[in-house]
Amino acid sequence: MENLGYYCGKFGLLEEMTIPMNDRVCYFGDGVYDATYTANHKIYDLDEHVDRFFHSAALLNINMTHTKCELKQLLQEMVNKVDSPEQFLYWQVTRGTSVRNHVPEPGVPSNLWIMIKPGKIKDVYSKIKLISVEDTRYFHCNIKTLNLLPNVMASQKAAEAGCDEVVFKRGDRVTECAHSNISILTHGILKTAPLDNLILPGITRANLLKICSDCGIPVEEVTYTINELMEADEIIVTSAGSLCLGVSEIDGIPVGGKDQDTLKMLQDLSIKRFRETTDSNI
Fold this sequence. Notes:
Number of domains: 2
Number of strands: 15
Structural class: alpha+beta
Order of helices and strands: EEHEEHHEEEHEEEEHEHEEEH
Oligomer: single chain
CATH superfamily of the largest domain: D-amino Acid Aminotransferase, subunit A, domain 2
CATH class of the largest domain: Alpha Beta
Radius of gyration: 19 Å
Number of helices: 7
Distance between the termini: 22 Å
């Protein structure tokens, strides 16, 4: 089979899966999620993604019905059932099923969802175009919540402008992208936003910082402005599906391209890490 769904113990093709109308996700988006990719049926950075998933759930006081070990085992079993060796793997947990009420009913078990479909990471060497959008999201961006309407609206603007991603800004401060983290290379230093409540603690962002450390590239976790972004030697967008993308344009203005050797080294090492982890030739 090419795709597979899971809901509270039930398996099936995605197009055949159904959920109860009273799942709190339907009314409130009351849950959290995480996602990564596979190659050779091996899940990339599974431990890190599951840790972040449980952390997000804990911040919303969602009671998990699986342990971390049980969830990892279930995710691997699901991956093994799908024919394609390269997959996009997504899972989420909601606060359970009960009649609509803003106050959650106590003692209701949470609902676990899993979705698998064919997918592969992007060509890391192809540069992307961005547009800048005011960050109108709420103040819990560090939680990987299901409430993604501002991200969807911003992504739609990017698509309409012929761009690949959005870079959010709060006033002059750059935060992150609609579904990625963003960093800059300036005078040989990698600058990335600090892990506060305005950005998601990206797994691939953490990988990039480790790669920089191994290569002797200084890292500064500091806020930076949209002007600093526009003037940076290189702009790097990181996510599970893109690893380490360079940026060629923001709001129709050419950017980056001033430290391509360093950028390519980081891209090469990101790809190398993915290949070694998944035993793939991607």
